[in-house]
Amino acid sequence: MIEPEFKDGLLPVIVQDYETLEVLMFAYMNREAFDLTCSTGIAHYFSRSRGKLWKKGETSGHYQHVKEMRIDCDRDCLLILVEQDTGACHTGYRSCFYRTIEGDVVGEKTFEPADVYKN
Amino acid sequence: MIEPEFKDGLLPVIVQDYETLEVLMFAYMNREAFDLTCSTGIAHYFSRSRGKLWKKGETSGHYQHVKEMRIDCDRDCLLILVEQDTGACHTGYRSCFYRTIEGDVVGEKTFEPADVYKN
Questions:
Q1: Residue B5 falls inside a structural domain
Q2: Residue A119: predicted pLDDT
Q3: Per DSSP, what are the bridge partners of residue A76?
Q4: Which of B22, B72, B99 has its CB closest to that of A96?
């Protein structure tokens, strides 16, 4: 296996749908998240804002099933191809990149956040 | 236009082929690189290792012509869809993500670095 380089303990990760090739989201893994992703096949990340490990889908149930992992030429960025349950974005869109920079909505809404995130 | 958020002066950027949807590379823009990309339609980045602005293709001639820019839900990551001249990676592959984490080569080689990078 090619060993990724964690800069300041973190590895940037691009998440892409393995069938449609839509880019779904961008996040970071620390060593623990990377190891858990490899061992379980479910994407785990490190939340910089919350300062802790984050199993994607632990609240929403929208897990990411990892089909393939690729690493870039410098070994400091990861591309993972996943099967995404329902949607990746907390706003209800399948992809976090659902808007152009001009503000046009180009993504597909796949769930209602109010139905999923209940306190 | 939706204003991106530059954390510590930098914005992570995912670069995707606008036709094949192949993820080509990952880089960072500072404010100057972002503005130049918007005004010229040619991708510019900020090289963290060299500490300076970097017009992609300035040495190789392999420019990236920006077709669309998308921003994520948090406005702190950019996805740009480009027409890539020849190849994006300095190793000669079209994409920097030409290997799986297991080390299998899955990308296409599109040029010989020795022919392109001459001192």
A1: no
A2: 62
A3: none
A4: B72
Report ipTM (2 d.p.): 0.97
CA dist., res. A43 & res. B45, Å (int): 29
Domain assignment present for B94: yes
- The answer to whether the beta carbons of residues B92 and A46 sit under 8 Å apart is no
Task: Please state the domain count of chain A.
Answer: 1
Output the six-digit token pair for A19. Answer: 């069938």
Question: pLDDT tens digits, residue range B63-80?
Answer: 999 999 999 999 999 999
Residue B68 resides in a domain? yes
CA torsion, ordered A84, A5, B98, B95, to nearest 10 deg: 90
Q: Do A70 and B22 touch (CB under 8 A)?
A: no
Euclidean distance between CA atoms B88 and B97, whole angstroms: 10
For the four alpha carbons of B43, A45, A87 and A81, in that order, the dihedral sign comes to positive
- Full residue range of the structural domain in which residue B49 is found: 11-107
Using the 8-state DSSP alphabet, how is residue A21 labeled? -
CB contact set of B13 (below 8 Å; sequence gap of 6+): B26, B27, B28, B29, B45, B77, B78, B79, B80
Q: For residues B30 and B52, give the distance between their C-alpha atoms in angstroms, rounded to a whole number.
A: 10
- DSSP letter assigned to residue B36: H
CATH code for position B51: 3.10.20.810
Residue stretches of the annotated binding site of A: 72-74, 76, 89, 96
Helix (H), strand (E) counts: chain A: 2, 7
Mean pLDDT of chain A: 97
List CB contacts (< 8 A) between B16 and chain A: 23
Chain B nearest-CA distance from A105, in A, is 10
